[in-house]
From TrEMBL:
Annotated InterPro entries: Cas12f1-like_TNB, RNA-guided_DNA_endo/Transpos, Transposase, Transposase_put_HTH
Protein's name according to its UniProt entry: Transposase
Cited NCBIfam families: guided_TnpB
Stated family: In the N-terminal section; belongs to the transposase 2 family. In the C-terminal section; belongs to the transposase 35 family.
Claim: DNA repair is one of the keywords in the record: no
Annotated Cas12f1-like TNB domain residues: 319-385
Organism lineage string: Bacteria, Bacillati, Actinomycetota, Actinomycetes, Streptosporangiales
Organism annotation: Microbispora amethystogenes
Gene expressing this chain: ydcM_1
Length: 399
């Protein structure tokens, strides 16, 4: 059964020629320069004259910028440059939102080469065209203004109309990202089953049914090669050609780890949405959990080395990536996903409900001090998570 209304993005590897790769790099460089110049314009106008410059003002000046620089800014799509200016405008809007909320503001910063990796075309057909050469049945191309028809490694079908097109650089690779509205959602057959998930480091996920999904520890597996590449980079002179190659090697290794982690998350999430109608997971605050314990000079932290190692293990497990992918797949498959507060789930007996820290004998062993129930600690926690999620669902239905 198919339903309509899901918004999704599709990412494909680009296969540019050497000339096209150089043009893509130039396009990214010019959009970064435009972003930084627009930021400097806003800062200077407010500092010297107290004038607030907005997106409409800067968008109106684009035609003059393009006319004065026909071989630079004038080469690229006008709408893609507007998207870059909107990106800056969103950064300022987020800044003022944080100021009003009393949070750490974080004023918009100038973008260095490593911090600006994406160019967006807001509408297919305006400076870009997906599947631009349909007469080639065995290959797919995307046309980008100023760059040409770039071949795409399309490994899956795009089942809806393309709305926006973005190009992203990751190391030496280029990707095209398609954003589509009203993508048909393939609803999977009902199974009548529900499951609770306990996130961990030893195992990525432990289910309330006792199944454990392995944590492949991608970063740890590549630690030796990364250390060698980073040592080689440290021996080079900053800005040298050799240093550039060494930096590209480090970036390529990190990108490989990221792709492996994402691939594993997709496979694990698909297995869960295929087998269960209701999936309950912990509502984790990963940023808080991985905060440094180093403290300050006046009040130094305790067990800093152990906390650092735990933080690295949590990030290597990729909880955030997995939960993001799981949410997308659950929505597409018509499954119900429930997030619950994990407080106390690892100390509470899933049989009698007794809660005490003494129940958690070791990291893996659970023994209730009240009723004597014994179980794997993660399985016990997953059962508590499932019970809490079903209670939340019943309360919402009764309200």
């Amino acid at each position: 059964m198919w339903e309509v209304g899901v918004r999704r993005s599709f990412t494909f590897l680009l296969r540019p020629t050497a000339k096209q790769a150089a043009a893509l790099a130039a396009c990214l460089h010019d959009h970064r320069e435009l972003y930084n110049a627009a930021l400097e314009h806003r800062r200077t106008a407010y500092r010297r004259a107290g004038v607030t410059v907005r997106y409409g003002d800067q968008s109106g000046e684009l035609k003059h910028i393009r006319a004065d620089d026909p071989d630079g800014q004038g080469r690229w799509s006008f709408s893609s440059q507007q998207a870059t200016l909107r990106r800056l405008d969103k950064a300022f809007a987020a800044f003022f939102t944080r100021v009003k909320a009393g949070r750490t503001p974080g004023f918009p910063r100038f973008k260095g080469r490593g911090w600006f990796d994406t160019v967006e075309w807001p509408r297919d057909g305006d400076g870009c065209r997906w599947d631009s050469q349909p007469e080639h049945p065995a290959a797919t191309y995307v046309r980008l203004q100023g760059i040409g028809h770039v071949r795409v490694h399309q490994h899956r079908r795009v089942p809806s109309t393309v709305k926006t097109i973005s190009v992203k650089r990751e190391g030496a690779r280029w990707y095209v990202i398609l954003s589509c509205d009203d993508v048909p959602a393939e609803t999977l057959p009902a199974t009548g089953a529900a499951v609770g998930l306990d996130m961990g480091v030893a195992s990525l996920v432990t289910t309330s049914d006792g199944e454990r999904l392995d944590n492949p520890r991608r970063l740890a597996a590549s630690a030796g090669r990364l250390a060698t590449a980073q040592q080689a980079l440290a021996r080079t002179k900053r800005g040298s050609k050799r240093g550039g190659k060494a930096a590209a090697r480090v970036a390529a290794l990190h990108a490989r780890v990221r792709r492996q982690r994402l691939d594993g998350a997709h496979k694990a999430a698909f297995a869960l949405v295929r087998d269960y109608d209701v999936i309950v997971h912990e509502d984790l605050r990963i940023v808080n959990m991985t905060r440094s314990a180093s403290g300050t000079i006046a009040q130094p932290g305790r067990n800093v080395a152990q906390k650092s190692g735990l933080n690295r293990s949590i990030l290597d497990a990729g909880w955030g990536v997995f939960l993001r992918v799981l949410a997308h797949k659950a929505e597409s498959a018509g499954r119900e996903l429930i997030a619950v507060n994990p407080a106390g789930t690892s100390r509470t007996c899933s049989r009698c409900g007794h809660c005490a820290k003494e129940n958690r004998v070791t990291q893996a062993e659970f023994r209730c001090q009240a009723c004597g129930h014994e179980a794997h600690a993660d399985v016990n926690a997953a059962k508590n998570i499932l019970r809490a999620g079903l209670a939340l669902r019943d309360a919402a239905e009764a309200a």
